[in-house]
Specification:
By secondary structure, this protein is mostly helical. Helix 2 packs antiparallel against helix 3.
């Protein structure tokens, strides 16, 4: 997900998206601990997307 696409969303939409990614990351961590995670590289992408969203939320708070 690109930062340009995220900046077009409103604050509520970004918060919903951040919650979804946070839940997804939690599920992926559990799968990893059980040895069932099929795409470990996807965790990196989810963490980066979550960081992008949090950064944009901070920018919009100013």
């Amino acid at each position: 997900m690109k930062a340009v696409e995220l900046r077009d969303l409103d604050v509520d939409g970004l918060q919903v998206k951040a919650q979804e990614l946070d839940d997804q990351l939690f599920r992926m961590r559990i799968q990893k601990s059980l040895g069932q995670l099929e795409a470990p590289g996807k965790m990196k992408d989810v963490r980066r997307d979550l960081a992008r969203i949090k950064t944009i939320l901070r920018e919009k708070a100013k």
